[in-house]
Amino acid sequence: MGRIHEPKKILSLALKAFSVVGLVGMLVLIFFAKLFAQYVVKTPESAISIIAIAPAVFFVSLGAAFKGYFQGYKNMAPTAIYQIIESLTKLLGLVIVFVLIGMGYGDNPKLLSCGAVIGVTLGSLASATFMFIRFYFGKEQIDTTVENPVASRKNSVLFRAMIKIAIPVTLSSSVMSITSLLDMVLVKNSLIASGLSAAQSNMIYGSYSGCCYSLFNLPPTITQTIGISVLPFLSALFSTGKKSEAYKNMDSSMRIVSLIAAPCAVGMSVFAKPILSLLYS
């Protein structure tokens, strides 16, 4: 659209807004960890793990702003490196667990869980740090030259436009998280109400969430990358009035997603027992 300076202004606004949201989310988790663990998930021992993972909310918020900037320019390489760094650094949680076991804390599940969760926080910190370095110190590979540049809009106008886009996207993205939370609360409370102890309900729900739910989330993890990749192209086509071409790209993306999702659904339904036996036996 010719507003060559607007993307960095949007990034600056996003970083400020996401910093506030991430900081508030982190503080809420820290200060209400005990109440959440005791009255919502019915596992008081998990409070320390909730506190340990709380800083990840702040770091993930910052990383998301940088990812959106690069993806808007159809540059997916920083996002790919971000995810690799995050995944590899998370393995430090396993290292911490093994160290704790070696120190004689193998019979303390609360401490071991906290050690594993710290890996998630370290992963979000490392990946957000990479994005910061990549943006401020990396070589600029984005072409911002245009024939007829247009003046950028005011920060207030950009912020309102960003909020209008962010609210529906956030609500749609939070559906799975809210569903998982409700699922955890309802299932565990139902198990306790059926006569099982809190320890037994935790064990049964852990088997469900650790084995079944992780497999359930595998296909969306793959298909979401298609949506992330195609979004900048669709935005560019819609902004230039090429709606028919945008719809064609959407149809192509849906076909690709269907080719991945449908076999996964059938395969998991038919071969559920062999899959679980192979992975968790």
Distance between the termini: 56 Å
What is the averaged pLDDT score?
84
| Topology as a string of helices (H) and strands (E) | HHHHHHHHHHH
Number of helices: 11
Number of strands: 0
Global morphology:
globular
The fraction of residues assigned to DSSP E strands is: under 5%
Low-confidence stretches: none
Q: Please identify the structural class as seen in this structure.
A: mainly alpha
Sheet with most strands: none
Q: State the share of residues found in helices, binned by percent.
A: over 70%
**Rg (C-alpha, Å):** 22 Å
Describe the structure.
This protein has 281 residues and is mainly α. 82% of the residues lie in helices and 0% in strands. The chain contains eleven helices and no strands. α2 crosses α3 and α4 runs antiparallel to α6 (109-137). The protein is globular and about 70 Å long.
Question: What's this, in brief?
Answer:
The chain has about 280 residues and is mostly helical. Helix content is about 80%, strand content about 0%. The chain is globular, with a radius of gyration of 22 Å.
